[in-house]
Amino acid sequence: MREMGPGPDAREQEHTVREDLWAMNYVQRYRIGNLGEFDLDGRPSRVRHSSTVSNPSIERDVRMSGAIAWSASPRGIRAQFRPSLTTKPALERVMGWLQSEAGPRVHVRYWAEGGWNDELHGTPRAAARRIEKLTQFYGGGHFGALRRRIKSSSEVAEIGRHARLLDFWRERAGRFEGDEDLRAIQDLTAGRSTLFHFADNMRFHMISAGKGMAAGLQNWLSNQPGASLDAYPDAEYRAQVQVVYAAAMIFDSPVFDEVDGFFKVPREQCVRRTYHRIVLPLQAGSKRFLISASMLDDAIDLLP
């Protein structure tokens, strides 16, 4: 079996196992969501030794949404998760459930670098330490979960909506002419764009968010018109976009990329978003603006 992530601590006697070594009798399943909330995943069921193979639908949910699948029985616990997608609240929930030196063994099954990996730990506390190490190594939990890939201008042609927006921007030589242009940009991006004013102090002030953007963002902006991006509640996202936006303004050049990460949308839950993004600098007399447009694409998967 491949050795993945940070090596196990020998002192804790951690070792990898085949999943078919992990058998249970009566099993209760839970699904831990990105806010740390949990739900019963069906009624308790009797599971034979030969039926301990993983459920494909559960595995897909864990791999794509970042949920944690938790199974418990008198003989043991199994935690299935994807470290790079694990959110801070979900990690804290699992840590709380595993804070015991004594107790049943724990089967830790995690997705990383394109495959599933299995480990068996003798105590809940040992499993908790390993889960936290894996989450830290792969960038989830308290450690953020946001990645981007820079794209070339030739790749933009593959995204018809963004190619048309880029043509519109080139036709105007980067000039911005107010509400009429803003309406055209919103039409070209199906409402998935946000307009910012770029101030002399290197701060971005949000002016408008299209109707295709998250409702929580629109509500937040309507209550704080012209608010600085510094006030946006998601610190990790704020730090990442400020770097991208500043690059577009400093070099007076478009930025194209793909983004994969979790975002704390105001008044909504923490959600995973994967999308193509185009960032364009604009000029209107002595004032400078920036438009950021995106297109969702669930085929993007940049996290390990």
What would the keywords be for this entry?
304 residues, alpha+beta, Beta-Lactamase, 2 domains, 8-stranded mixed beta sheet, 8 helices, 28% helix
Question: What would you say this structure looks like, in words?
Answer:
Helix content is 28%, strand content 30%. The chain is built from eight helices and 14 strands. The protein has helices spanning 56-65, 88-97, 124-138, 153-156, 160-171, 179-188, 215-223, 235-250, and strands at 15-16, 26-32, 38-40, 45-46, 68-73, 76-81, 106-112, 115-121, 146-150, 193-198, 204-209, 255-264, 270-284, 287-296. Strands 1, 2, 3, 4, 5, 6, 7 and 8 form an eight-stranded mixed beta sheet that branches.
CATH topology assignment of the largest domain: Beta-Lactamase
Number of domains: 2
Summed over residues and divided by their number, the pLDDT gives a mean of: 81
What does the largest sheet look like?
A: 8 strands, mixed
Which percent range describes the beta-strand content? 25-35%
CATH class category of the largest domain: Alpha Beta
- Please identify, by name, the CATH architecture of the largest domain: 2-Layer Sandwich
Q: Give the overall form.
A: elongated
Helix content: 25-40%
Task: Name the structural class.
Answer: alpha+beta
CATH superfamily of the largest domain, called what? PAS domain
Rg computed from alpha carbons, rounded to a whole number of angstroms: 23 Å
Which oligomeric state applies?
single chain
Give the H and E element order: EEEEHEEHEEHEHHHEEHHEEE
Q: Number of helical segments? A: 8
| Count of distinct strands | 14
